């Protein structure tokens, strides 16, 4: 079925002390990235099987970038030619891949799948369902809270009071950072904290507008909805002023960022990380959506354009975290709706199931491919049709390791990840 890399991808067996800064950066490759062209076999026999299966979607072996890696069964791996910086980070030991990871309601094999004897993710192969499931890690129910939100529900009450939430989004409201009591705080990649145009500004008419707005906010409303909205808006305005003041003193970095939206979002995150002390924020999560990966056609030219954007942005962010001295305290990872079919539809690939994610940071035990990279062979029993592979690592296991590094105790894991007990014994004393 697959060769398995055992062990934990974290160099840190236990979470850092509570006084140390820690951040998780989640990058959602929305649309379902064809990640078996991001990470692919390189040894000749396995490459030949990959090429035969992928046909017109296969990358030329002479073009791909081999990794400095020798896995089980003498497995060699390579990355897409547009991922040169990712290759360098991998070979340098600060980036790892998690192979064939995806939404699982419980451990699943082909026999149980065919027999209908196992719980399956709702709306399997559906964008709307699986993009939500990657954020909630609860694939057998539709719920309103996500992994980052539930982590914040556990951790934020133990942290110092900050003017903003520990969950910061660069891409608007999302399920991943939504908790029962904690919501995300939205910032803009270009401008930082979002403010109300014309309020307390030098624009013509600002004084009149500001007077009117302040009067509306200070009014005593009988209606509870108006009263609550006015209070929330006032708090948001105050928070934005504090954040903008803090960002005004952000450290000027020698590390540079490209002009892409992803790079600029990561640049803004670097600025916020640099002022985390001023924001009284020892723990933060960040969320970015980089969309456009639903490549039912033109996979090859689309990835030639898009993957270098990801690779450069990750390298730039790695450089900035190194310069700030927090590389081992910031862990970045990618998620996507699902992997895609290994076989071609004649023009591209269609919705799949298991895929490959990457994890980057100084606390990552990099230079390795963890989990079980499937043999790309039509006879693989993990294949439920057209190269849709049943995941061999669940999102729960990936998130559990990240959560434990981040400071979530084993006793809280079943709150953060309600299905974790189906995949991992939280009382084992070791990581997933």
Features:
432 residues; alpha/beta; 11 helices; globular; 14 strands; single chain; eleven-stranded mixed sheet; three-stranded antiparallel sheet
Structure commentary:
- This protein has helices at residues 44-54, 84-91, 110-115, 127-136, 147-155, 206-218, 224-248, 261-274, 299-324, 395-406, 413-416; strands at 2-5, 22-30, 39-41, 65-66, 77-79, 95-102, 167-169, 185-188, 192-193, 283-291, 330-336, 355-360, 369-374, 393-394.
- Strands 1, 2, 6, 7, 8, 9, 10, 11, 12, 13 and 14 form an eleven-stranded mixed sheet that branches. A three-stranded antiparallel sheet has the order 3-5-4.
- With 432 residues, it is α/β, with parallel strands linked by helices.
- Helix 2 packs across helix 9 (299-324) and helix 8 runs parallel beside helix 9 (299-324).
- It is globular, with a radius of gyration of 22 Å.
């Amino acid at each position: 079925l697959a060769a398995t890399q055992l062990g934990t991808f974290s160099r840190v067996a236990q979470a850092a002390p509570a006084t140390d800064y820690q951040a998780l950066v989640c990058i959602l490759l929305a649309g379902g990235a064809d990640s078996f062209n991001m990470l692919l076999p390189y040894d000749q026999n396995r490459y030949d099987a990959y090429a035969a299966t992928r046909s017109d979607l296969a990358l030329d072996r002479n073009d791909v970038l081999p990794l400095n890696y020798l896995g089980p069964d003498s497995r060699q791996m390579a990355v897409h030619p547009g991922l040169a910086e990712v290759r360098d980070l991998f070979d340098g030991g600060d980036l790892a891949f998690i192979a064939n990871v995806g939404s699982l309601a419980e451990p699943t094999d082909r026999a149980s799948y065919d027999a209908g004897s196992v719980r399956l993710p709702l709306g399997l192969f559906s964008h709307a369902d699986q993009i939500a499931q990657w954020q909630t890690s609860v694939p057998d129910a539709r719920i309103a809270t996500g992994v980052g939100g539930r982590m914040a529900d556990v951790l934020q009450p133990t942290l110092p009071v900050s003017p903003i939430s520990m969950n910061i989004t660069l891409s608007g409201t999302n399920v991943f950072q939504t908790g029962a009591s904690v919501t995300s705080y939205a910032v803009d990649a270009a401008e930082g904290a979002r403010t109300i145009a014309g309020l307390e500004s030098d624009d013509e008419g600002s004084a009149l507008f500001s007077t009117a707005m302040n009067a509306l906010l200070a009014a005593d409303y009988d209606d509870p909805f108006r009263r609550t909205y006015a209070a929330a808006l006032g708090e948001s305005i105050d928070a934005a002023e504090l954040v903008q003041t803090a960002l005004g003193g952000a450290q000027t970095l020698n590390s540079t960022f490209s002009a892409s939206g992803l790079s600029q979002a990561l640049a803004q995150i670097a600025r916020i990380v640099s002022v985390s002390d001023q924001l009284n924020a020892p723990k933060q999560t960040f969320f970015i959506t980089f969309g456009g990966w639903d490549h039912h056609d033109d996979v090859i030219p689309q990835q030639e354009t898009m993957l270098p954007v990801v690779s450069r942005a990750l390298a730039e962010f790695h450089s900035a975290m190194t310069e700030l001295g927090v590389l081992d305290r910031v862990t970045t990872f990618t998620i996507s709706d699902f992997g895609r079919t290994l076989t071609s539809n004649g023009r591209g690939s269609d919705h799949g199931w298991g895929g490959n994610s990457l994890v980057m940071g100084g606390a990552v035990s990099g230079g390795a491919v963890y989990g079980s990279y499937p043999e790309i062979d039509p006879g693989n029993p993990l294949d439920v049709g057209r190269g849709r592979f049943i995941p061999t690592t669940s999102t729960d296991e990936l998130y559990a390791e990240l959560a434990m590094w981040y400071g979530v105790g084993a006793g809280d894991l079943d709150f953060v990840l309600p299905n974790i007990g189906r995949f991992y014994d939280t009382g084992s004393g070791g990581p997933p």
